Amino acid sequence: MTDTSSKKMHSSPMLHLFRLLENLSVWVVPLLLFAGVLSLPLPKEVWEEARYGFWGIGIAIVLLYYFTFRANRGDSALGHALSLSALLVTFALPLARLWHTGASESYVVGGLLPMSDAAGYYGDAQNILLGSSIGAWSPQRPLFSGLLASLLALTHQNLQASLALLVVINAIACWFAAREVQKTHGALVAAMLSMQGFFFYRLFIGKAMTENLGLAVGLLGFAVLWRSAHSKHPWTGLFGVFLLAFALNARMGTVFVLPAVILWGAYWFRRSGRFSGLFLVGGFGAVFFASLLNLILLKQVGIHNGSPPFANFSYVLYGIVTHSNWMQVTIDHPEITKLGSTERFRAILEVTIIAIRQHPWGLVTGLFRGWQDFFWGGYSLYSWLSPASIPLDLVLRPLAIFGVWGCLRNWKTPGASLLLAMAIGAFLTIPLLPMVDAGIRPYAVTVVILYMFSALGLLLLLKDILQPLFRRLLKGELKEKRGGVDPTQPNQAAKSVTACRTVPRDMLIFGMLICLLSVVGPISLKQLAAPPAIPASFICPPRQEVRRYQINRGSGINLVGNRKIDHSNLPNIRIRDFRKGLQFFKESPEYLRLLQLPPATAILATYWGWLVADRQLVPPKLGFVAVCGQMQRVGQDLAIFQATVIQPLPIKTP
What's residue 489's pLDDT? Predict the structure, then answer.
């Protein structure tokens, strides 16, 4: 008896240690593979296909996701590690292509440097770290600049590492959503959802854009709502509503999804009576709390009397009324651009109201035009802004229609009812998000709705039409589905969802961590910032101004002669590759200015534009520097500070 109890005492710590190591491996191994993909020199064809391909990479990753999610059917640590590794590896490939080629695309130059909107968000994140207020752009969406500031602080202001962390966050969020779907609908739906999520997010990989935060938290919110729908746990649903509201504060989009989900939850979680009053009040409370966090952050890090959140919608509204785009108001009323941010938005609202009074039907026809552009226009959430994806678009759209039909046929089931409610909310918001303004970007938070429809449509098609051909391959999944939408009799995974009636611990921690990094992190960082002052003895030559900058590892590029290195790899970019990438901006004034930059030039991303200097002027020691030079404004999207003198300041990088 004594020997048995002694063995149990000795085995218990070992068992706990084994489980701890097992749980750590779920995260450590995929992250190591992610880092390996970013650092290894893979064949150029692999990078090109991962960044710009569709059919080849699409089929490959669907198969990869399918078999790794099938390995996850038992909810084992090995299955989790395999499926998460698959997503992290594939999400890393497009980022590796940017870093190993120095390519330029929308919002990024030389594989790293933020451009246009991205430069504004990155600059405001730097302002927070310097103890300053954010500028006139980020008040529209301060949460992303807050998250970026926190990530920069964690990485010692390494922009490259921070962008990699954003990719990790989105890959994990996509994995959470696919994992919850896989538990109820099988590996095929999870793989299709992940593939479409990859194609959408690929547009923003390596770019400091708000879609990084909106998509990640939107996917996480959907995963939590999906869990709550199948477990019938209202508190889990309220957390999902909060995450969805937080995501829409980070990246404004289909806002009517929020009341639609709240009304769905009030009906779905009712116990006695027609609606659950508790969920109704709690849902709107969750939306209010998420919006309050956004306002608190703006109050703490924003400029005094700055523009209110989402004030730029006034531009969009004028474009809707005049059947044009969001820039039309600056063309019709150029005097508005000379006003301050707050006065400008008020003036735009005034001229918009006047336009509505003069042409009352303009607003109505403009709203219908939004639906027309969405369903029959040149943009599609299944084409991902590339003509090469049109054949794929022609496949996925009919599948989505098939999926909607399946959900309508099973509207009383958990997943179908949730998707239909979210789709109704998104449909009502479409006219307020014209495709001619921002394309598919405003749909980042709730794009998962359409991707679920197409994934379910494929499963429904296989069951009703092609089942005999795929019986052996898909027999474990097709037996468990009803109309390709919900299982008639819950399988073991679905039972585990019902048994676990609360938010999974990993999703809860992940969601709360993102919120804390986006709100509490930047507020604390601004309060703790103590940048050094430029000494009075530092005097610049005539007609030059003095500025303080900070040189950080991973936040700039070096232009190198073509014969100096064999291939580009950040931070060293061959001048030939750099100029080749600039072809993307060939029609802009920035193109000619950047084309003039010679080899042996260092370009550093800063809180205000780029710091450009001869490579020999840049000190090897990281930290704050005092700089003499001249500021040059190139076009609307680029500011360059051409340095002639750089002197380190007596302080170490925090």
Answer: 33
* Residue 79: predicted pLDDT: 85
The rounded Cα 117 to chain-centroid distance in angstroms is: 14
pTM of the model: 0.90
Q: Where are the alpha helices (DSSP H) in 324-444?
A: 328-332, 341-358, 360-376, 390-409, 414-429, 435-438
pLDDT at 139: 63
CA dist 638 and 119 (Å) reads 8
Q: Comparing C-alpha atoms, which of 228, 268, 182 is closest to residue 491?
A: 182
Alpha helices, DSSP H, located in 40-71: 44-52, 55-70
Residue 228 to residue 569: CA distance in whole angstroms: 45
Burial class (CB in 10 A: 0-12, 13-18, 19+), 606: buried
Tokens of 532: 């050094």
Task: Enumerate the domain spans of the chain.
Answer: 545-648
Contact by Cβ (8 Å): 111, 187: no
Tokens of 283: 């849902």
pLDDT of residue 72: 75
Residue percentage of the chain with pLDDT more than 90: 52
Q: What's the CA gap between 460 and 456, in Å, rounded?
A: 6
Burial class (CB in 10 A: 0-12, 13-18, 19+), 335: exposed
Residue (of 98, 132, 111, 116) closest to 609 by Cα position? 116
| Whether the Cβ atoms of residue 180 and residue 334 lie closer than 8 Å to each other | no
For residue 171 the two structure tokens come to 């890959």
* Long-range contact pairs involving 77-84 (C-beta distance under 8 Å, separation at least 24): 77/22, 77/23, 77/25, 77/26, 80/26, 80/179, 81/25, 81/26, 81/29, 81/30, 83/175, 83/178, 83/179, 84/26, 84/27, 84/30, 84/171, 84/172, 84/175
Structure confidence at residue 136 (pLDDT)? 63
pLDDT, position 110? 93
For the chain, the average pLDDT equals 86
Q: In what order do the strands lie in the sheet with 572-574?
A: 545-551, 623-634, 638-648, 610-614, 601-605, 556-560, 572-574
The alpha carbons of the chain give a radius of gyration, in whole angstroms, of 26
**Which pLDDT does position 654 carry in this prediction?**
42
449-479 CB burial, b ≥16 within 10 A, e <16? bbbbbbbbbbbbbbbeeeeeeeeeebeebbe
Asked whether 72 and 182 are in contact (CB, 8 A), the reply is yes
| pLDDT for res 573 | 95
How far apart are the C-alpha atoms of 241 and 447, rounded to whole Å?
A: 16
Enumerate residue ranges in the chain where pLDDT < 70.
1-11, 14-20, 22, 74, 136-139, 304-311, 341, 385-388, 465-503, 651-654
CA gap 215, 212 in Å, rounded = 6
d(CA 559, CA 600): 5
What element of type H or E holds 574?
A: strand 572-574
Rounded CA separation 627/8 (Å): 67
